[in-house]
């Protein structure tokens, strides 16, 4: 290496540069001199144990341990069922930390996300289509073109959309369960109808709502009838004199919001009281719809702590304080039923009796009260409350509101019922005698014809 002319040339050049620097210093250069240098770097601790040499070659006979997770990812027939059956939290975690899972997921992103939503919530995936939620879409990770335009990648549903579908399916399912536990059953088909109504609630203009409601493919006649059955059951639940939470108008307030989550909080008793109802009413309805003569403080900003620009937003176009008047989605569906001449009022009695009376045996149906701790089976209970329980609840309500119970009318009603029962028995006996006499006269008439 010392015989290399390039090395000698470089070495000589470096010596010449150093000589020039020395001459410049002698001429009176006032630049600062570096007296010492300190390298701020810790020594290699591992070198004391393993040495400075590089590791040797890998053992050619070494075989890695069998990894069932990697084998599932690389199997063409097991990868898709495995991904679809994961919990959403586990799916997001694997997509975030595993490079191979991330790459394979991106290759089939749109099909996996769609199949995942359909597998876990088929009705919600159909009702809350990703086309209606562009804010929950992302650009295709593989940059596949849209409409054969290579410069523009398509938009596809994201994992956030799948999460939204699962969340809304859970909310609607809990609402139906809460009504069923209070003996207000609904057909299974009504679940999809309630989800369609949630889509209608999320629209912020009357024009879009009207076009959506008038679409007979989106809202069939059966959907309109089932929705009004849902209204009847909800009113029965809220206006129950003993087990109810308020009054029937509370259903209209809850169904005028942007979401059905407040309705679930109301039915489950998680959060909602009288003060919350006042606040929601002021924010939902315009002042012309409120009874200010009876409740004048609703129009007082100091009492409600609600600024004027937030009053009645749910009943205005675009949910803006300067928007025009907008009808409630609940009222739009009722108006559409009238426009289609469905005559829903003919089925109101059937709506009330559905889930309470067996149409074949005319007997009261039982409802699920809860799950037993020993075997996990459903515990059934009669729909009607026991007479003793009903009297105790009525006595508690009477004591709370200061109403004195008068036993005389109750005894009179009881005597009236007993006399009515005896009267029906006497009538039945008289009717049976008349029937026997009628049968005897018919037999005599037949004998005369034979003769």
Automatic annotation (TrEMBL):
Task: Give positions of region: Disordered.
Answer: 1-38, 421-451
Residue ranges with Basic and acidic residues bias = 1-16
Superkingdom of source: Eukaryota
Q: What is this protein called?
A: Uncharacterized protein
Q: From which organism does this entry originate?
A: Corynespora cassiicola Philippines
Q: Where is the composition biased (Acidic residues)?
A: 17-30, 424-451
């Amino acid at each position: 290496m010392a015989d290399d002319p390039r090395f000698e040339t470089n070495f000589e050049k470096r010596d010449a540069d150093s000589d020039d620097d020395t001459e410049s210093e002698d001429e009176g250069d006032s630049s600062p001199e570096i007296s010492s240098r300190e390298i701020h770097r810790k020594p290699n601790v591992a070198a004391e144990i393993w040495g400075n040499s590089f590791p040797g070659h890998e053992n050619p006979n070494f075989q890695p341990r069998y990894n069932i997770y990697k084998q599932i990812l690389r199997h063409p027939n097991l990868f898709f069922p495995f991904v679809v059956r994961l919990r959403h939290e586990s799916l997001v975690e694997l997509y975030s930390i595993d490079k191979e899972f991330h790459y394979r997921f991106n290759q089939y992103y749109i099909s996996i996300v769609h199949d995942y939503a359909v597998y876990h919530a088929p009705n919600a995936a159909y009702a809350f289509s990703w086309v209606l939620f562009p804010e929950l879409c992302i650009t295709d990770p593989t940059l596949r073109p849209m409409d054969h335009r290579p410069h523009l990648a398509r938009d596809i549903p994201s994992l956030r959309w799948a999460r939204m579908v699962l969340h809304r399916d859970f909310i609607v399912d809990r609402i139906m369960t809460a009504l069923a536990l209070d003996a207000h059953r609904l057909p299974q088909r009504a679940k999809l109808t309630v989800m369609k109504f949630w889509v209608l609630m999320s629209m912020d203009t009357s024009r879009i709502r009207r076009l959506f409601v008038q679409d007979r493919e989106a809202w069939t006649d059966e959907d309109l009838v089932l929705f009004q059955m849902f209204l009847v059951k909800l009113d029965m639940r809220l206006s129950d004199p003993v087990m109810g939470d308020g009054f029937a108008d509370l259903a209209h307030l809850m169904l005028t919001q942007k979401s059905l989550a407040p309705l679930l909080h109301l039915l489950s008793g998680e959060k909602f009281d009288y003060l919350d109802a006042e606040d929601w009413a002021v924010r939902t309805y315009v002042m012309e719809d409120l009874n200010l003569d009876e409740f004048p403080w609703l129009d007082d900003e100091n009492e409600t702590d609600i600024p004027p620009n937030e009053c009645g937003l749910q009943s205005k176009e675009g949910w803006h304080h300067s928007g025009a008047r907008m009808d409630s989605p609940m009222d739009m569906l009722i108006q559409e039923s009238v426009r289609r001449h469905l005559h829903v009022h003919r089925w109101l009695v059937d709506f009330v009796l559905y889930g309470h009376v067996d149409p074949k045996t005319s007997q009261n149906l039982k409802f699920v009260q809860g799950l037993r701790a020993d075997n996990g089976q459903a515990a059934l209970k009669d729909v009607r409350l026991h007479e003793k329980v009903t009297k105790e609840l009525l006595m508690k309500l009477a004591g709370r509101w200061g109403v004195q119970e008068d036993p005389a009318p109750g005894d009179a009603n009881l005597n009236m019922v007993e006399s009515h029962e005896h009267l029906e028995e006497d009538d039945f006996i008289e009717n049976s005698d008349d029937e026997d006499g009628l049968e005897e006269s018919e037999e005599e008439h037949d004998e005369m014809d034979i003769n």
